[in-house]
Amino acid sequence: MHPSPRSEILHAAARAVAAHGFHGMSMRKLAQATGRSTASFYNYFPSKEAVLFAIQSEAFDVLLARARSLLGRFVEPEERLYAFVLNHVRYFASHDHVMRVLIQEATALAPPQRGLVRERKLAYFTLASELVSSVMPEGTPYAEVEKTTYCVFGVLNWIYGWYDPEQHGAPDGLARTIMHLVSGGLVERRTDDALLARVEAELSDHAAPALIADGEQEPIR
Amino acid sequence: MHPSPRSEILHAAARAVAAHGFHGMSMRKLAQATGRSTASFYNYFPSKEAVLFAIQSEAFDVLLARARSLLGRFVEPEERLYAFVLNHVRYFASHDHVMRVLIQEATALAPPQRGLVRERKLAYFTLASELVSSVMPEGTPYAEVEKTTYCVFGVLNWIYGWYDPEQHGAPDGLARTIMHLVSGGLVERRTDDALLARVEAELSDHAAPALIADGEQEPIR
Amino acid sequence: MHPSPRSEILHAAARAVAAHGFHGMSMRKLAQATGRSTASFYNYFPSKEAVLFAIQSEAFDVLLARARSLLGRFVEPEERLYAFVLNHVRYFASHDHVMRVLIQEATALAPPQRGLVRERKLAYFTLASELVSSVMPEGTPYAEVEKTTYCVFGVLNWIYGWYDPEQHGAPDGLARTIMHLVSGGLVERRTDDALLARVEAELSDHAAPALIADGEQEPIR
Amino acid sequence: MHPSPRSEILHAAARAVAAHGFHGMSMRKLAQATGRSTASFYNYFPSKEAVLFAIQSEAFDVLLARARSLLGRFVEPEERLYAFVLNHVRYFASHDHVMRVLIQEATALAPPQRGLVRERKLAYFTLASELVSSVMPEGTPYAEVEKTTYCVFGVLNWIYGWYDPEQHGAPDGLARTIMHLVSGGLVERRTDDALLARVEAELSDHAAPALIADGEQEPIR
DNA sequence: GATGAATGAGAATTCATTCAT
DNA sequence: GATGAATGAATTCTCATTCAT
Questions:
Q1: B55-189 topology per CATH
Q2: Which nt sits closest to C40, CA to C1'?
Q3: Using CB atoms and an 8 Å cut-off, which of residues 85-104 of chain A contact chain B?
Q4: Residue B159 burial (CB < 10 Å; 0-12/13-18/19+)?
Q5: B221 exposed, middle or buried (CB, 10 Å; 0-12, 13-18, 19+)?
Q6: Where are the alpha helices (DSSP H) in chain D?
């Protein structure tokens, strides 16, 4: 009952791409990692890009299918939102290298296939934005819902950048922290716009900084 | 009053790395982009890694220095937190490719230099966590503050993944959306833990999904 | 019945290294010389250093194995010494470029592999020093034997610097000149020519050895 | 009382060539080793080849001039031969990297300059062959004298391959070992030690010669 | 005399891919 | 299906040399 070679390759590829990036992963190393000859590889995937495409599209398929199936069990908005968060967190907690590939290599695919991944991503985003909308104050304009959804995805996507179960506890605990922040914020009270305006005004003189310090640098050699 | 060649190179490199990743950027293309021969390049930076290091370390230096100088103007916790957010958003709104490099290529550097970048990153994180802590309910355990700070950075770091001023309005508006989410959450009321537990229990049968769908796939060719 | 590609490469490499030194030989030129593309090369040897190592270690292996097998046929010290000289001269007379590589590029290898070559060299030297010792006056201190052995190797190793069969006669004549110098010096009695002829006759069946052992080699990668 | 920059460069170059071969020495590293900029280098030598030529031709000039001056002091053949050996050994004992360059890079120069070095080498060889001839049995054919002289040079040239004063004693001791081998061989009477001591005493005033003639040189360009 | 900067050529090596077996 | 061998193109980086200052 081995996993299929195809699946085995996909897993190894995800790990390699996560570790070194799409360009940093080579077919050779991939072949070595799976104990196959480089040439054998092309019996399963016609090109390096095809491997990446398979990872990304199939991962989104799984993610979306699971989310949909889970949401069928809940009616109340906050429950549904949490179910979505929990699904996302659990998936990525156990497959963080896939997460990396999904996020970091979003632009590595060329147009024809890139579009197909984007479609899946959009479906997933749309689902999330509906859930976000349903818990926000009635009448919130869509533009605000959209931006807020992106922010929520920021929280969810950044997990791979820091989360370590040994250090930060089980995935469900992480999901709760996230849900707490997303639902009630840090203070359970939205910061007053007047305060925000005050700060902005105070900083109005602060021009956008130089991209990079452009002063004297010690010469090389 | 030209920018120094060194600075010009750094900017072009940041753009290239952002677009294709560190491994996807080649010294050749970089040289072409700055109108120099490949060999000339090595008069300014001794290696490709040195270019990446310069971008990352100098960007963090600028970011941290600015944040510190801004915070000197405010006393109230929420004001200070917003000043931090605003500084971050403004910097990256105008230099989104630098942001990408900072985030996506965090692991591309080898140990000696990687540590130096990590130090700077830690200083920046520590500053943020103090601000987060100061607006959270008194007595929140540090572990929770830490995780929450990471979540906040998720929101801040993901900006480059979606933010487009033309579509989503000026940076200051984005900063407000973020600050609203972070301070008051979506509903200005933390979701009840009982509800969370209910959902978790309901999903307890849902094993971690296969990394990638492992079914039959149409054969290639 | 072609020679193996591996062996063909090794021969061409020895010629190139002899002509231009290790640093002066380029993989490009080597590839051209063997009618292969540069990249194809790396199917046989993983690096330039590996090529040099193969030449040096395999040449010493052949040389040492032959010397040992020859010495088994003689008992008298002077005969044994001459057999050693003759073996050395014949080998290098027919493969002078290998000799050059052995001598001129002794320091081109990096520590791990360099040590392995040094071990072989030491075994060969030790064998020679025993023979030298056995013909020197009884009681000669080892320090003197050692230095004298080095001097004998000086004579033997320098052959490639000047010897041209067309101009200086057959290898066996060269071996005699060397043996005369070594045994009796410039001004004294030399080894009896009858003895020399005896040894030569005994070795007449020993064809010039393969430049480099051309047997089975462990495959790379 | 600094050495001239020219001479300093020549010394550093000899060391570098000895260590890494002519192709392995780069003008850059040479410049670094002498604390100059690469460009400054070309104020002293018009090309890399010119550096090598200067080392080789000047070294031979010094060697030959010294040998000639020494030989003027002796009449007896064996004394004269030993004086030649002693001069050679002393020179190279103190300047082993020059010796390496002379021997290992004999073919690195292109035809026009290579011939000039060869001329000097021939003069040196001819001198030696006369000395060798004068101690060999009357009537030895020139072909045999020539081959024997090459063998003697083998002994002399190989010194750099093994001689270490710490381990093998002072240069004069080495010269004796060589002279013993050359005169009486391994098994026969050697040159009387009293004779050797006489020559050494006679040359005691002859300090180790400058590595390379450090006089006025015609300016380049 | 000195030097920072420039550069075409070439170094070793790796790449994704193909193909005969 | 598997694979050893082949390869053109690209990789990072170094080379000797030049030249304006």
A1: Tetracycline Repressor; domain 2 (1.10.357)
A2: F6
A3: 86-87, 90-91, 94-95, 98, 103-104
A4: buried
A5: exposed
A6: 5-24, 27-33, 38-41, 48-71, 77-94, 96-104, 111-135, 142-157, 165-168, 171-184, 193-202
Cα-based torsion angle of the residue sequence D13, D15, D18, D23 in order, rounded to the nearest 10 degrees? -30
One-letter amino acid of D68: R
Q: Which two tokens stand for residue D49?
A: 């080849």
- What's the start-to-end Cα distance of chain B, in Å? 59
Question: Does the domain spanning A52-191 belong to CATH 1.10.357.10?
Answer: yes
Do D and B touch (≥3 CB pairs < 8 Å)? no
pTM: 0.84
Give the tens place of pLDDT for each residue, D48-95.
Answer: 999 999 999 988 888 888 888 888 877 878 888 888 888 898 888 888
| Distance to chain C for D51, nearest Cα, Å | 17
Instruction: For chain D, give every domain's residue range.
Output: 49-202
Q: Which chains touch D (3 or more CB pairs under 8 A)?
A: C
B38 CA to E1 C1' distance (Å): 30
For B190, the 3-state DSSP assignment is coil
Q: How far apart are CA B116 and CA B122, in angstroms?
A: 10
CB neighbours of A181 closer than 8 A, spacing ≥ 6?
A155, B148, B151, B152, B182, B185
Taking alpha carbons only, the member of C125, C146, C145 closest to residue C136 is C145
Residue A138 DSSP SS3? coil
Print burial letters for D175-201: b (CB count within 10 Å at least 16), e (below 16): bbbbbbbbbbbbbbebbeeebbeebbe
Which is nearest to A124 in space by CA: A137, A136, A97, A106? A106
Query: Which of B48-62, B188-202, C80-94 reaches the highest mean pLDDT?
Result: B48-62
The answer for C163, left when phi > 0, alpha when psi is -120 to 50, beta otherwise, is beta
Report the gap between the CA of B112 and the closest CA in chain A (Å).
Answer: 18
In this complex, which chains have at least 3 CB pairs below 8 Å with chain A? B
Taking the CA atoms of residue C145, residue C146, residue C152 and residue C154 in that order, the dihedral angle to the nearest 10 degrees is -160
Distance of CA B32 to the CA centre of its chain: 28
Nucleotides in chain F with any atom closer than 7 Å to protein CB: 1-20
Residues with Cβ within 8 Å of D7's Cβ and at least 6 positions away in sequence, in order, are D212, D214
- pLDDT for A186-215, tens place per residue? 776 777 777 777 788 777 766 555 655 544
Query: Which listed CATH number (3.40.1010.10, 2.60.200.40, 3.40.50.880, 1.10.357.10) goes with D49-202?
Result: 1.10.357.10
Distance (Å, rounded) from C-alpha A110 to C-alpha A212? 31
Q: Reduce the DSSP state of residue D31 to 3 states and report it.
A: helix
The CATH H-level superfamily of C48-202 is: Tetracycline Repressor, domain 2 (1.10.357.10)
Most A-contacting residue of B186, B196, B198 (CB-CB within 10 A), to test interface = B186
